[in-house]
Amino acid sequence: MTQQQKLGPVIAIVGPSGVGKDSLMEALVAADPRLSLLKRVITRAADAGGEDYTPVSEAEFSKRVAAGEFALHWPAHGLFYGVPADAVTAQRADGRGVLVNFSRAVLHQAQETFGNFIVLNVTASPEVLAARLAGRGRESADEQKKRLAQAAKPLPDGLEQVYTIDNSGELSAAVQAALEVIYPAARA
Fold it and tell me: Which residues are annotated as a binding site for ATP?
């Protein structure tokens, strides 16, 4: 058995802003002890809210990139995001799955980097997305419109394991649907 076979899946959680990615990830971890959340490094202010992340300055982020500390890193929405290499490897030990909020733009790179890779494409109706964006109050009305316009953007072609999870309704339904595709043999 190779090292890659021993490592659990990296589970990419992707979808538009307001779709409930953070809520879904937290609920999945609470529902199944084989799953954990990866804490990303982000050039976002510490008091910005949202997910649990490690806030850093752009200068610090650049130092970490140069030191090779990230398995993957990318820019999005005026910020920089990084997946700490040591953390993702440690969290995948013993076959455990690690949930990561990824940008669509790096999915191919993530698939190549991690091997055992699953994409959960989280969706919700346009009405639900608009209400959630307005309710969280992190973006201006113009920024909300831009994010809503991006919601229908398709995933890149060529990804191997992609599953769509509708998170328009009860969170518990989305959790059940996600668990069934992450660990199908355990649910049979």
Answer: 15-22
